[in-house]
Amino acid sequence: MAFLELHDIHKSYFLGKEEFPVLNGIDLDFELGEFVSILGESGGGKSTLMNIIGGLDRNFDGEVDVNGQPLDHKKEKQLDDYRRGTIGYIYQSYNLITHLNIVDNVLVSLNMTDLSKSARKQRAIELLQKVGLGDQLKKHPNQLSGGQKQRVAIARALASDPEIVIADEPTGALDSKNTAEVLELLEGIAADGKLVITVTHSQNVANHGTRIVQLTDGKIGEDTRLKEAYPTNDHQPEFKPKILSAGASYRNAFQHLSYNFWRNSLIMLGTAIGLFAVLLFSGVGNGVNAFIQDQINSMINPNSITVLKNPTGKNLSTTELQQSLSQYSSNPSKLLLSDHQINTLKKVKNVDKVEAGYQFSAFTVSYNGKNNSGQSLQTWTKAYASDTIKTGHAPKNNEIVIDKSQAIALSSQKKYKSLLGKTVKLSFAWVDKNNNPVQVTGNLKIVGFANGGQAGAITATNYSTMRNLLNNANGATQANFASVNVKNADKVKSVSKDIRNTKENNKYVFGAITVGDILDTVNQYVSIASIVLASIAGISLIVSALMIIVSMYMSVSERTKEIGILRALGERKKDIRRLFTAESILIGLFSAVLALVLAYAGSLALNHVLYGIVKFNMVQITWGNVVFTFVMAIVISFLAALLPARRASRLNPIDALSAD
Ligand SMILES: Nc1ncnc2c1ncn2[C@@H]1O[C@H](COP(=O)(O)OP(=O)(O)OP(=O)(O)O)[C@@H](O)[C@H]1O
Q1: How high is the ipTM of this complex?
Q2: CA 203 / ligand 1 centre spacing (Å)
Q3: Final residue of a structural domain among 458, 486, 518
Q4: Where in the sequence is the domain holding 194, given as residue range(s)?
Q5: Ligand 1 centroid, distance to 42 Cα (angstroms)
């Protein structure tokens, strides 16, 4: 029983339905220690035979036995294992991986062994020293001569300590000096007790071997033994082959990414822009929400509920209430609350205090010949947060607090504080008991300035002052809102519900607005804006994904030959798929890091500019946003790699190897 036996090998190629037979029944035996040269005319099927022996071709008839065991060429896994552990390949065109240095080229094969990382590296260096390249370790293949490249290929073929080394015209592209050196190395391999099978056109090369086999018309012709096979030794392998680890795939992907640094940087920048948009828009969304909450909470006491008359008698939501109020704005007498109704409010469970109040939507303040109109005149209640007044104090009898912007309009930016203690004339239109218009006026002392800021200017007197002014003008004096203070913040919702559900003569009488309701309404607008921003970010993410898909397809077509080499060295389809998903995921991750840096810088810049205007950090990127962006980047890059990686893994290794 020989070490390698070929039995009745038949192989045809098909062009359409037409059959082109190449091998017509090959029977051959090979022993370890032999250096066999296969000679034959061009196109005679030598490479085809080598691909069958090397476990790259699965489409043939016949049987290959290795070490007494049949090789089941229909089973891909068995062939992968066979190529990884038993075969070393040397090609005429070297087939080195251009983006790896020569040590890494040898390591591609060694990475599929159970040696430790340092032992793998040490072996790679030893092998390169053995083929005379110890002083060239840092070079890439394109920095070597043809003879040197072929020696790297020999070192790589020996890396996994295979029993069979196949060399397909190994000296075809070399001059006589390099040919002699390569032949010496091959002889040395056979002398080490391995089986060397080489394809050649050169009689000189063939004469170096121990045996010459002629291939004629797809059959074995002459089979000449030149000398005895080299003696085999009882050499026990120091390590075993194993499948490629995920880490090795990621390292290879990283090496390829860094080799094409500039091109990949541009792709990452393109991808990062989409992720940056997601991060920044999320940050702006958070900032705007926090800003609104801060503004409302700083002006309105969250424990208070504003109660208004429900003019429709129907059960209304906050939005419906606000709509109906605006319909009744020309008929304010319909919105007055009776003293009895104010008392009803006091009896609602968990209510701490009820303050009747007035609010008017248009008024004028005059000082020293200057007039200023405002939109919201109210009576001071607990509904205002304590820090609403920035200068001065809450209004008492015959006093008024005006908005800072108003004070500036009536004086100047610098001098507005001098208005403190001065008397202004307040005037506004109201109605009497019969709904006839009356003009209300009064002279009041300024005791404070409110800073309504973005959420609206505030002008306020106290309740009795306002009631007196209305009385003096013969206006209706019933309150048109009430501020209900609730004992606990967590009861605000239930109290507001009870108030809304209160009935008089079978009609709902009150509408109630809480800070939460106001926030809900505002948040509705914010969510619409967020959806618009998210759609823009979504579109940029789709563009990012397309960029990755295109770059991965480019990468696959550029690396077709490499895919063939990796398959020939024993990588599985799965390893090839993982190589490309790894590359894509790395692009996604680096893009996410870049996006994070850009978004962080962008948020610093935006916050710097906006803080000067609104005194608030308007961009607030949270850890949640960052995690979401990274997960998104990984998911998108993984999905984008699926099709290109699948295509790469399905390439036929023989076709891939013959790619230009
Ligand atoms: N993928 C293929 N599809 C169709 N025909 C093929 C294919 N590969 C090889 N052939 C044909 O099979 C025959 C044998 O090719 P092969 O490469 O094995 O010959 P060879 O003896 O190695 O030739 P050379 O010495 O010129 O390299 C040739 O006629 C070739 O045209």
Answers
A1: 0.95
A2: 21
A3: 518
A4: 4-243
A5: 8
